[in-house]
Write a structure and sequence with these properties.
Length: 144
Amino acid sequence: MDKSQGLMTFVWDGVVTADDWRAHLEEMLANPDWPAGPRNLTDLRSADVSSITEADQAEVVALYAPHLDKLRGMKSAAVAGDNFEPSTAFEANQSPTGLSLIIFNDLLNACTWLGVDKGTAQATITELRNELRSRAATAVVAET
C-alpha cells in the first residue's frame, strides 16, 4: 500500500487459483489500512488464471459486498497481457458495484488512466514479482 500515491499495487505470478485469490482478498479486506487510497493497479501479465471459473469470479466478488462503501469511486486498472479475455469478462459481468475497473494491454495506458508514474509503477511491480519468485513455494499474489 502506497498511501503517498493513494495506490495499491498487486502482482499475480505463476499459477493463481480461486483459493489463492479468495485468501488474498480476505486478507486485504481485513487489513484496517485498506484501502490505501482511491486507486489500484494489478499486473496479471505473468499469471496463469486458467483454473478460475466464472462461478469462482462471482464468489470472490461477493466478498466485496460488506465493503461497497469503500469501493465507491475507486479506480482499478488491470494490466492483463495473455489474460485479457478472462479479465474483460470479469470487467463486463462481475466487477463489484462502485468500482471502476478497466482492463489494459499495457502498463503505460493503465498508469495514464490512474494518474500514476509508469516508471515508479514498473519498479514496484518488478520488486513485487521478484519477491514472489523468491518465495515461489508459498505465494502467488503480492501487494504494496
